[in-house]
Amino acid sequence: MKVLVVGGGGREHALAWKLLQDDPRLELVAAPGNPGIALLGRCEPVSATDVDGLCALAAREKVDMVVVGPEAPLELGLVDRLRTLGVPAFGPTKAAAEIETSKRFAKELMLAAGVPTAMARTFTDANAAKAEVRRLGAPVVVKASGIAAGKGVIVAMTLEEAEAAVDAMLVDNAFGAAGAEVLVEEFMTGEELSIFALTDGTHVLPMIAAQDHKRIGEGDTGPNTGGMGAYAPVSIAPPGLIEETVERVFLPTLRAMREAGRPFTGLLYAGLMLTPTGPKVVEFNCRFGDPETEVILPLLESSLLQPMLAIARGESLAGAEPLRWRSMAAVTTVVAASGYPGTVRSGDAITLPSAARDVTIFHAGTKTDAAGALRTSGGRVLAITALATTLLAAQQASATCAEQVQFAGRQFRRDIGWRELARGARTS
Length: 428
Hints:
CATH topology of the largest domain: D-amino Acid Aminotransferase, Chain A, domain 1
Number of domains: 4
Distance between the termini: 49 Å
Shape: globular
Helix content: 25-40%
């Protein structure tokens, strides 16, 4: 088989790594890929947003499947184009991807389908949005409706902070077109979880839950990022919660998408808040999350390739065996560049540590220079995943490896999984 993976981040490296674990004979092509993926297959210099170039590459290579990693090519309709060409593609169509690319569409769909979520209203006028902020009171959530690289959600603890967020999006154009429409949403309390589900549009294969760490600083302090690490499994997400999420979130959402004439196939990601009144959806993503993918896939014992290929070919998952998982804990620590999540410095030389057992280094924002030296090229540079029999051991192994990574201005958190470890301490 030959598979084309679209994208060049840590998520795509983890996907490529897992697909080759499932079938070592697989011929892997990535566009544009990264230096880590280049160790697994062949990288082609085609941008993830160059739909014409990607379609031409898929046709030229005669690939058996295209796996679309990031949301941007999904929003641009890459899967629609590939299907027109008869190329099996894993991912939703442009219309179905709106479940992520338009928070307004997703919120209206959930409320109409009875999917538990926070109440919200949509605005394009700053004064009207600020009036709704004052009506709800603080704390309150202000969200850019479009894709804003994981940074378009402001949890405002004061009215002044919320009104500043509204102005930043609707007046100052801080997020461009993504923030031309905003949602003002009621604040929810509880812990957040990420739950993925593979789907053919009707049936689902849920994955275990992971918990992301969005804040830059230890103890969840400082500004939001795209994610500084994740861990799995999560004790507050037992099998019963996964089953409840399938019945109350995934299946009603997929039914509503079919009824709307935009059936969703691929990977549906539910960000959940475990509120005092039960789990509620914070948002949906239309693809694998990052860095959750890097922590979940190393724990997946059964094949990812088989259900992905079935979905890409338009086959049914009815009767598919549930996914099987290793009885281990995993922690992913993100090593970020100087300045992240603000103005990021690129081009710093990277020195990687020697390989360690049960530790995998996924490349996210790396490049090689003309001399072949590895250098930083993005905000989140590496995602280091460690597996161990306990979460504490996995955390320590991941942090130790992160400490051994060398480049100027590197930053990372040493406390990934701290909430889970605190729960263990309370219950022991």
